[in-house]
């Protein structure tokens, strides 16, 4: 596929996703401007990110630090003047915190105090060495099915983790994130997440982000207050294979 053909394919997919978002917002009585579209570019090349940037997107997400590191650098070379904001949305090990702090603008998958501590140290170091220019925005990932296999802390642990994050100097609490449980009712899951978010904002009014909804359930997420949907397949197509 030529770059021109790929651009046309991505433009068509982007138009379809934006139409879905617009309809979902209309049905929920919300403004489309209140829901951010986050392009999940994992397993896709930096050239696709560049084309999406040309089409008007500026928020991109990765879930593996090793893949993201090279892609962020390559994209910066391809589009040095383009606005961009990189999100880490995958499960993150503490030993990857220093590397992630060098390229991520947002980490959406903070689910433990130990990980938050590691990210805080890494961010402070990156600021001191000039590897980043501003504090790191973070979201608390919530597990909505009682398991930790896909990441996330228990709902009852959210307040304590949020309090700990706000005590750090270089992390900024921005809200919550969750993935709807496989085989579960997305409406019930996202309603639960909205309740958690509303309770969190009582003590942390700055934590307004609700990252929820993907290609298959974004309408439900929007109906239940999501402010950011994470879309990969519907935007970029079927997942490509990458080397480990």
Automatic annotation (TrEMBL):
<feature type="domain" description="Alanine racemase N-terminal">
    <location>
        <begin position="15"/>
        <end position="239"/>
    </location>
</feature>
<dbReference type="InterPro" id="IPR001608">
    <property type="entry name" value="Ala_racemase_N"/>
</dbReference>
<dbReference type="InterPro" id="IPR011078">
    <property type="entry name" value="PyrdxlP_homeostasis"/>
</dbReference>
<protein>
    <recommendedName>
        <fullName>Pyridoxal phosphate homeostasis protein</fullName>
    </recommendedName>
</protein>
<dbReference type="Pfam" id="PF01168">
    <property type="entry name" value="Ala_racemase_N"/>
</dbReference>
<dbReference type="InterPro" id="IPR029066">
    <property type="entry name" value="PLP-binding_barrel"/>
</dbReference>
<comment type="similarity">
    <text>Belongs to the pyridoxal phosphate-binding protein YggS/PROSC family.</text>
</comment>
<feature type="modified residue" description="N6-(pyridoxal phosphate)lysine">
    <location>
        <position position="42"/>
    </location>
</feature>
<comment type="function">
    <text>Pyridoxal 5'-phosphate (PLP)-binding protein, which is involved in PLP homeostasis.</text>
</comment>
<keyword id="KW-0663">Pyridoxal phosphate</keyword>
């Amino acid at each position: 596929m030529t770059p021109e053909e790929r651009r046309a394919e991505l433009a068509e997919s982007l138009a379809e996703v934006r139409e879905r978002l617009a309809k979902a917002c209309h049905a929920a009585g919300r403004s489309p401007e209140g829901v951010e579209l986050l392009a999940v570019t994992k397993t896709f090349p930096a050239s696709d990110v560049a084309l999406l940037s040309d089409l008007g997107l500026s928020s991109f997400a990765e879930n593996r630090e090793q893949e993201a590191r090279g892609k962020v650098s390559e994209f910066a070379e391809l589009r040095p003047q383009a606005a961009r904001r990189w999100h880490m949305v995958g499960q993150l090990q503490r030993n990857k915190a220093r590397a992630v702090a060098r390229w991520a603008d947002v980490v959406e998958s903070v689910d433990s105090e130990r990980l938050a501590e590691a990210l805080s140290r890494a961010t402070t170091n990156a600021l001191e060495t000039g590897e980043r220019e501003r504090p790191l925005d973070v979201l608390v990932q919530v597990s909505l099915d009682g398991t930790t296999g896909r990441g996330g802390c228990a709902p009852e642990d959210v307040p304590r983790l949020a309090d700990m994050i706000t005590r750090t100097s270089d992390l900024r609490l921005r809200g919550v994130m969750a993935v709807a449980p496989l085989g579960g009712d997305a409406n019930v899951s996202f309603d639960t997440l909205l309740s958690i978010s509303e309770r969190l904002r009582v003590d942390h009014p700055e934590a307004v982000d609700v990252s929820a909804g993907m290609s298959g359930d974004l309408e439900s997420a929007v109906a239940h207050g999501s402010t950011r949907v994470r879309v990969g397949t519907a935007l970029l197509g079927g997942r490509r294979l990458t080397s480990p």
